[in-house]
Design a protein that fits this description.
The structure holds two protein chains of two kinds. Chain A is mainly beta. In chain A, about 0% of the residues lie in helices and about 55% in strands. In chain A, strands 2, 4, 5, 6, 8, 9 and 10 form a seven-stranded mixed sheet that branches. Chain B is an all-beta fold. Chain B is about 0% helix and about 55% strand. In chain B, the strands form two sheets. In chain B, strands 2, 4, 5, 6, 9, 10 and 11 form a seven-stranded mixed sheet that branches. The mean pLDDT of chain B is about 95. Classes of the chains: A mainly beta, B mainly beta.
Chain lengths: ~110, ~120
Amino acid sequence: EIVMTQSPATLSVSPGERVTLSCKASQSIGKLAWYQQKPGQAPSLLIYGASTRATGIPARFSGSGSGTEFTLTISSLQSEDFAVYYCQQHNNWPWTFGQGTKVEIK
Amino acid sequence: DVQLLESGGGLVQPGGSLRLSCAGSGFTFSNFPITWVRQAPGKGLEWVSVISGDGHSPYYADSVKGRFTISRDNSKNTVHLQMNSLRAEDSALYYCAKYLQAPVAAFDFWGQGTLVTVSS
């Protein structure tokens, strides 16, 4: 199975800052999704296919990367963006998630 | 609006069984694979199982293979997850979610989850 490793585990940032989250795969993949999960809520899809924003996702969220290294960038963090972010590879069975990065208020 | 609603969770003893259900609405149910993802308290997400739109292709994580069975009834817009031989490590919030589109296995709509607790 493909192991997904996210870093950092926690990121303390101020509103308005640019945020970069990392996700690394144990082998080359072409298909990666990013999800946002707020406390007490189900995850919500942000990005799929590494760089395609899901319907209704603001342009401040962008995904990039290829092979084994991927990045989620939030260009200017808004108050509603404080949450846990997960990457998920949807390239090879079984689908696997990273352990998550918590973005918290500095 | 697309909606997914899970039910069937509860408290069960180790070795016991539960049957979870996921009812979908607001989309052409039979066109989309449905998946189950679980989340232990305070932990991350773990993919569990998926079934194709026509119900002919189920897949399972190794951690549940041989113990869990996924099925669907498209006439009732419902997917079931039969969980047998439950273990403490199966305790989690179980979400069902739909694929963005077959075969793109990104999950664009999720239910709110049903809680399974395995304890004596």
